[in-house]
Amino acid sequence: MVLNLSQPFLRDFLKIIQKDFPLDSRPFLKIAQKLKITEEEVLRLLEELTKQKYLRQISAIFNPSFFGHSSALFAFKVLEKNLLKAIEIINAHPGITHNYLRNHPYNLWFTLVVLPGQKILEVASKLFLLSEAEDFLYLPVIKTFKISTVLEVETENFEIKEDLTEGVSNFTFTEEDIKLVKVLQEPLPLVKTPFASLSQACGLSEKKIFSWLKGMDQLKALRRFGALLNHKYLGYTKNIMVLWEVPEEKTYEIGKKLSQENFITHCYERKTYPHWKYNLYTMCHFKTEEEKKIISVLAKKFKIENYLMLETLKEFKKERLKLFYET
Predict the structure, then answer these.
(1) Are 78 and 131 in contact (CB under 8 A)?
(2) How many CB atoms lie within 10 A of CB 157?
(3) What stretches of 163-205 show up as alpha helix (H) in DSSP?
(4) Number of CB atoms found within 10 A of residue 146's CB
(5) Which long-range contacts (CB under 8 A, 24 or more apart) does 211-215 make?
(6) What does the domain layout of the chain look like in residue ranges?
(7) Predicted TM-score (pTM) of this structure
(8) One of 69, 93, 98, 285 is an active-site residue; which one?
(9) Architecture of domain 67-148+232-318
């Protein structure tokens, strides 16, 4: 099957599975009824999207901090002779969700998430020593301006905003909560009654699963339930993290304005150091080299003299975090 992503039908389909995925015993039937096709056609299309690597998975996307997990961005400075060893050590940790080689002396950039009760700097320090890195930057989030998925399918843009709440510190999660998180963060089976399979896996009724998801959504523990697409296979091959040095009094104003750009999927204020004064971080996705010129245009617009464009030279790890992972 040849998929033409410019077709209005397919654009509508992608919107539904990301933004409006039905929490129902027969979710694919509900989607079929919206699109006036059959349930079997929906399943075949999802299988083809998966086969062609457009679709990563359909699942719950949780807020890690709500369930007691801590996370931060780290940058390691690793010599060429130690690079392979460092990559192997970092990637082996189950709390590493992303690990990229970027064009800077701080060349390995990764996100680390640690379990409830663990101290993130202690875990990172062990990785630092084992990898024989020269130096590292600890770059936790101070403020989140934007977390979203932005897709451009031919001439249409649309954005899916995920909730920015960092979590509720006094929430006490139970063993049942943990069991549900572990099951629902896995890819949803592409069968007619997928939640029946999950019900069997966790020993709870479908009604209980839907009720729990609704409650987690209200508590801001659930960012969304839906599809995760692969930007690279949709044509976004130029992925750049831009670091901006912005005067403290203008951080909020500029952070909000940068967040309005469709090509920016993530925008954060992060920790600074005397030797590292970049405080705004934006993840930018482009299809061509020409599109990257907009970065310098924005720098002039906001009168930002010092900024750094870090291109992704190689992707070593990119996967969904599994909360309550095994160490």
Answers:
(1) yes
(2) 11
(3) 175-184, 194-202
(4) 22
(5) 212/177, 212/180, 213/23, 213/60, 213/184, 214/23
(6) 1-52, 67-148+232-318
(7) 0.89
(8) 98
(9) 2-Layer Sandwich (3.30)
Neighbours of 63 (CB within 10 A): 22
- Model pLDDT for residues 121-154, shown as the tens digit of each residue: 999 999 999 999 999 999 999 999 998 754 444 4
Residue carrying structure tokens 């510190």: 169
DSSP state of 35: H
Runs of H (alpha helix) within 52-102: 83-92
Compute CA distances 141 → 14, 57, 270, whole Å: 30, 27, 5
Q: CA–CA separation, 7 vs 38, rounded Å?
A: 18
Say which residues have a Cβ less than 8 Å from residue 287's Cβ, sequence separation at least 6: 152, 235, 236, 237, 238
pLDDT tens for 93-104 read 999 999 999 999
For residue 119 the two structure tokens come to 């101290």
Whether pLDDT at 17 is above 80: yes
Catalytic-residue membership of 93: no
